[in-house]
Amino acid sequence: MGSKIDKSIFDRTTRVTPGEPENKSEVEEETMSAEKSGTAIGSTVIKEVLDLVDAAKAGRLDTRADLKEATGGERELLNGINELLDAVIGPLNVAAEYVDRISKGDLPE
């Protein structure tokens, strides 16, 4: 299940922000430890999550993780993320629709 994290993904994880590791060696140690214990996140999950983040930043809130390459726990995790997005974004869409209607003088019931 665990796989090596490619360099581009690794580089994204080494940006220092509050609460983040101070240097690459800390990230490398955590990654190696996770891989040895079998808890490393697979490359499919990492790619899908990064794609979701990029889509959200670009305002494409209807984008969901593609489940066809994922199996087992990875598929379950990605499906859960998709469900989480639906649960959060659905009400936002309703609120946006109401704001639009109100701006046109139509008060929703």
Describe this structure in words.
The chain has one domain (7-103). The protein is 62% helix and 0% strand. The protein contains 4 helices and no strands.
Question: Can I get a quick summary?
Answer:
The chain is mostly helical and 109 residues long.
Unreliable runs:
1-7
Strand content: under 5%
How would the global form be characterised?
Answer: elongated
Percent helix, as a range, is 55-70%
Could you give a short account of the major beta sheet?
A: none
Helix-strand string: HHHH
Intertermini distance? 50 Å
Number of self-contained structural domains: 1
The total beta strand count reads 0
- Supply the number of helical segments: 4
Average of the residue pLDDT scores: 79
Radius of gyration: 19 Å
Q: What structural class is derived from the secondary structure elements?
A: mainly alpha
Q: What are the salient characteristics of this protein?
A:
disordered N terminus; 62% helix; elongated; 109 residues; single chain; mainly alpha
Task: Describe the secondary structure blueprint for this structure.
Elements lengths: L6 H7 L10 H14 L5 H15 L14 H32 L6
